[in-house]
Design goal:
The protein has 498 residues and is mainly beta. It is built from four helices and 35 strands.
């Protein structure tokens, strides 16, 4: 016997509805697909392209509703959820289920979970996780056919006003990462939602724009090349830049002297990779979020795979380097240790440091002595907060970025504590975390850090800006981009998440 779908409780914030609170009873006649998600979950983000395909294919029959049941406290605030909705170009209705009322009514147990409801309001079924597009397509087609036969289907369009971006004229849009090149006096900025890389001097003078400003996948000269929400950046020498082309699931190489972009790793398909290695252009990769070049190898934070991988440019081979492929906070030998959506990398003193955001953790891979993985900060997938301290007493909230500060006599790590919107110090020896007061209240979900010329360069993602922190003066300022050549105006996309 079919189960009737529970109604949405009142008093919830809605997005992409013009402020209107929706009721399932008002959607009788439509096939409804509920997407239970949380915005820091990379698996949930992987579902978004599928939802957009469903909305286009079944435009007359289907209504998609995102039910955002937040894992992290930061995600549960409607103002922050709105920024994510804009960032990923969601146009279907989204309800903020921060207190899990809808989650509990539907007995959901995992992100993402999709629940299919027929036009009479009956639950047809549900499925958790990724990779269910074929089965869901078949189920939707079957529900449409059966409901049409019973005369229950209403093909009248249901259209609500989507959220609109208030910063449409900004030179940067949700920049994810930044790389400061001390030797060349250059900044490389992942202008993620303009789908391009901006090159500027330390004073903000725009020198080049790599990518045409529209989402896509294309190699070639700078204006012809296309990226899709690029993130991590790494220099290999003076004129070779590697880019984690995150939503394209590719690694791109930019020849800065020849002004050419080339794909060097990945197939362009987001795939859970079962093989341990393979030819770089024949091996599918999974949401690469950061890259780091050292000693002829490119380390890749493979967020969607919960692993660290390595690209060898000489052999043109991709190989797994660390991570069991299970999402877990587990120390030990690097291929049996567990990571949790690794998204930031830093290298110092023979160790690779990893920002492991879903566990709100900072990890260390000892490259010089046995390749063991150890946890410096973080205690579990659901343990997070905003607390200074040492070891297990310190709490972070979904950190995405790391950098090394070359202080003497010993270095320190800088953490982009993303969901706490702060910058923090970490002493890797004592495991002591301390907040940098100058950044509190001045950042909004910073995603990337880089150090050069005695300053820390910060991708202040939700402020659409690059900020500069001077540790000696303890001052935070904002970089102003100067673009007399109009390079930033070339073919900008009007849809930030298209």
């Amino acid at each position: 016997m079919a189960v009737q779908s529970p109604e949405f409780p009142p008093g919830r914030d809605w997005l992409n509805t013009g402020g209107q609170a929706l009721r399932l009873a008002e959607l009788r006649g439509k096939v409804v697909l509920l997407d239970f998600w949380t915005y820091g979950c990379v698996n949930c983000l992987h579902v978004i392209p599928m939802l957009k395909r469903f909305e286009a294919r079944f435009a007359a029959e289907l209504v998609v509703i995102g039910v955002h049941s937040a894992k992290f406290a930061q995600e549960g605030r409607t103002s922050n959820l709105r920024k994510l909705v804009l960032r990923y170009g969601l146009e279907h209705p989204v309800v903020n289920d921060a207190d899990y009322a809808i989650w509990n009514r539907y007995a959901i147990r995992a992100w993402p979970t999709l629940v299919l409801i027929d036009p009479a309001g009956r639950i047809v079924g549900q499925v958790a996780g990724e990779g269910n597009e074929a089965a869901l397509t078949q189920a939707i087609e079957q529900v449409i056919a059966e409901s049409d036969h019973r005369g229950e289907l209403d093909r009248t369009p249901r259209i609500w006003p989507p959220e609109r971006l208030a910063v449409a004229g900004q030179p940067l849009l949700f920049p994810g990462k930044v790389l400061a090149d001390a030797a060349g006096g250059r900044l490389f900025i992942s202008d993620s939602n303009h789908h391009r890389i901006v090159v500027a001097g330390f004073g903000g003078e725009v020198q080049a724009v790599i990518g045409g400003g529209e989402p896509g996948r294309a190699d070639g000269e700078f204006q012809r090349a296309r990226f899709f929400q690029p993130q991590g950046l790494a220099l290999a020498g003076t004129d070779m830049l590697y880019v984690a082309d995150t939503e394209n699931h590719l690694i791109r190489r930019v020849d800065l002297a020849a002004q050419q972009v080339t794909t060097v790793a990945g197939t362009g398909r987001q795939t859970w990779q079962a093989a341990a290695s393979g030819p770089a252009l024949q091996t599918a990769i999974n949401s690469p979020w950061d890259v780091l070049y050292d000693s002829g190898l490119l380390y890749i934070a493979m967020a969607g795979q919960h692993q660290i991988w390595v690209y060898d440019p000489q052999r043109q081979v991709l190989s797994e380097f660390a991570g069991s492929r299970r999402e877990e906070l587990r120390d030990g030998p690097r291929l049996t240790a567990g990571f949790n959506q690794p998204s930031g990398l830093a290298l110092a003193d023979g160790a690779l440091y990893v920002a492991d955001p879903e566990a709100s953790a900072i990890r260390r891979i000892d490259l010089a002595a046995g390749d063991a993985v150890t946890t410096l900060v973080g205690t579990g997938l659901f343990d997070f907060g905003d607390r200074d301290g040492s070891g297990a007493s310190a709490l972070l909230q979904h950190p995405l970025g790391l950098a090394v500060w070359p202080a003497t006599p010993a270095f320190r790590l800088l953490i982009a504590d993303t969901y706490n919107s702060k910058l923090k110090w970490l002493d890797p020896e004592t495991r002591t975390v301390t907040t940098i007061p100058a950044t509190a209240g001045q950042l909004d979900e910073p995603g990337g850090l880089s150090v050069a010329a005695g300053r820390v360069w910060i991708a202040d993602t939700n402020h659409h800006a690059i900020k500069i922190y001077d540790p000696d003066k303890n001052v935070l300022t904002e970089l102003t981009l100067h673009d007399p050549g109009g390079l930033l105006e070339h073919k900008l996309s009007n849809n930030p998440g298209s």
